[in-house]
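Q: Sequence in, structure out?
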Amino acid sequence: MTTTHRYRSAGLAGAGALLVSVSLTALGPVARAGPVTEPFGPGCASLPSSGEGSAAGMADDPVATAASNNPELSTLAGAVQKAGLGDTLNNAQDITVFAPTNDAFEKIPKADLDKILNDKKQLTNLLTYHVVEQDVTRSELPDGTFKTLQGGQITTSGSGDTFKVNDSASIVCGDLATENATVQLIDTVLMPKS
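A: Exactly. Output:
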């Protein structure tokens, strides 16, 4: 197993934005380097082995762009675009996205999903619930509690290569690096508390 390194700009500031009380902006081009673990989990095998949607290809792009290139995340990428959150996510630094796969979105009844996708406020609320304002990798997952951009909290638990989010979603491929974020692919859409 090899350890890869990635460089990211540091900086994260909250400010009011589209329908949410928190928005992310880059503070500056200060670079930092650090070791990143290899992606883990059974779902990593379903990623393309090369190209923009592969683990290596995702590392070269900011998170919303990387998601749009990944065939496992096309529903999420479309939802991000529909909510107008692409630039916000691409300009954020050191965030973690608990990214529902296409299969996760398919678990939601079509009528319910269509209702969410056609209500920008509700969609923004849902999507920002999947984003944490810090870099969360495998070492923080065994017993974690993290504040989301939506304002709620998510919890993580587990060990080895097996982790749960909010006791309902499994991380199927974890620690995917993008230019500005860590992505944890999950098999169930997380629903914020009303």
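The chain has seven helices and eleven strands.
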